[in-house]
Design goal:
By secondary structure, the protein is α+β, with helices and mostly antiparallel strands. It is built from 14 helices and 18 strands. 30% of the residues lie in helices and 24% in strands. Helix 3 links the parallel strand 1 and strand 2. Helix 3 crosses helix 13, helix 6 packs antiparallel against helix 10 and helix 10 packs across helix 12. It is globular and about 75 Å long.
Length: 437
């Protein structure tokens, strides 16, 4: 079955069968607005809830922090945030979840390791634990659920605490409900028709909807055993983001909808967020005079030194200094490796000066030369300009790249050739064979 099989005259039951048995998109433009599609998703939710297995799970670790983010846009913020967490005295384990090799590379992993950060590639986890859609906001829920922690403080890459968060897990209101969420601004309040659409009639009138604050998911806390049922329902909404995100703004409302669908409460500050220049200011769950998080949504940390300085924000100078420190050790381009380990340097020295046949299998071939300074001289082109070596979990990986990003990752085969495929465009197989030194 294919998305193109959808017809407006289908019954809701037929739509359910189609959604369950075909890839998630692309659908026709207003698919999520069709009445049979809306009815089908209400039916699927009502059928899903009784099947949820909410029995307690034995997790390897009690508590931890999960951060989602990667790539040049978010890694400077990750660096700043985890340094602040450690400097504030928090010793909780931290996992950074990301989506594939284009978001985190071996050098970044080595940079974060001394800070007690484990980097987890969700694309590899997904091979064993598939998820219907995993391409952006869905990663937040997926990472939390699949982390080894029973209790999780989740942080967006650009949301950083202003003081030690270790004792947050001991707050009475969080312990009572097994979850804590922070409010969004009043203009994000869900309208009555959205509540009705998702089958939550309690809030399907103007007064009830107006009093129900939307959530802001730059940070949240969840005890996965205590909140197993609503969290798995929120994951269902996220896994069906081709429908859900057409009606609500991203992952944050998946939590809101799930908890309210099941009639459950969560801990939350009784004070709406503040705003400071470009940053959402969130308060402590129970002491709303104390700032707890600063979610820098409109001026994410960058390496170029152009971030605005706002002295009314906590830790501002330290954050600026941390960006400067990162710039000293990282170029800002993934898979560049100008600080090689001894193993990487030894492998690099073997390749320097070699000329290879660079074959785009099924397309063309030409000689290229890997010279010192990580440059390609003979055979240089826009997509084959530089080269780098990285040790990836004990496997040496040769990356051929543009100026700003990788073109392909190659690994050595038993016959001495290096093989892989382009990461973009045609994604054709690549083979590199030595012809002379």
């Amino acid at each position: 079955m294919e998305c193109s099989d959808f017809r407006e005259e289908m019954t809701a039951e037929e739509v359910v069968e189609l959604v369950d048995n075909c890839p998630p998109g692309p659908w026709i433009g207003d698919w999520h607005q069709r009445e049979n599609v809306k009815q089908a998703h209400r039916m699927m939710v009502d059928r899903f809830i009784p099947t949820i297995d909410s029995r307690p799970i034995q997790y390897p670790q009690k508590r931890g922090i999960v951060i989602a983010g990667g790539g040049l846009k978010y890694l400077p913020s990750v660096w700043v945030g985890v340094n602040l967490i450690r400097e504030q005295g928090c010793k909780l384990p931290i996992q950074l979840w990301y989506l594939g090799d284009n978001e985190v590379d071996p050098f970044i992993k080595r940079l974060l390791e001394p800070l007690g950060v484990e980097c987890v590639d969700a694309r590899k986890v997904e091979q064993e634990k598939p998820f219907r859609i995993l391409c952006g906001w869905e990663l937040k829920l997926y990472s939390v659920w699949n982390s080894p922690f029973e209790e999780v403080l989740f942080l967006d890459a650009d949301s950083a605490p202003v003081r030690d968060v270790t004792d947050l897990f001991d707050r009475p209101s969080y312990s009572k409900h097994g979850s804590a969420f922070w409010p969004d601004y009043a203009n994000w309040t869900l309208k009555p028709d959205v509540w009705s659409l998702f089958g939550i009639d309690k809030y399907a009138n103007e007064e009830a909807a107006r009093n129900e604050w939307a959530l802001e998911s730059g940070q949240f806390m969840v005890h996965k055993n205590k909140s197993s049922l609503p969290f798995q329902l929120a994951m269902w909404y996220a896994a069906h983001s081709d429908f859900t995100f057409g009606h609500v703004y991203g992952d944050k409302e998946t939590f809101h909808l799930a908890w309210r669908k099941l009639g459950l409460e969560y801990a939350s500050p009784k004070r709406p967020p503040g705003w400071n220049n470009h940053t959402i200011v969130q308060w402590d769950i129970e002491d709303t005079e104390k700032v707890l998080f600063q979610h820098r949504v409109q001026d994410k940390w960058r390496l170029d030194g152009t971030n605005r300085f706002t002295d009314s924000l906590a830790n501002e100078q330290r954050c600026q200094d941390l960006c400067g420190l990162l710039k000293m050790v990282w170029s800002g381009t993934l898979w560049e490796n100008s600080r090689m380990t001894r193993t990487e340097q030894d492998a690099h020295d073997v390749l320097v000066g070699n000329t290879f046949i660079y074959e785009r299998v099924g397309f063309d071939s030409r000689p290229i030369k890997l010279d010192a300074g990580h440059t390609i001289t003979i055979g240089k082109a826009e997509c084959e300009s530089r080269w780098w070596l990285n040790d990836v979990d004990g496997i040496m990986t040769l990356t051929i790249s543009r100026i700003d990003r990788p073109t392909c990752h190659l690994t050595m085969q038993s016959d001495g050739s290096w093989c892989g495929h382009w990461l973009e465009h045609e994604r054709m197989p690549i083979r590199l064979t030595t012809i002379k030194r």
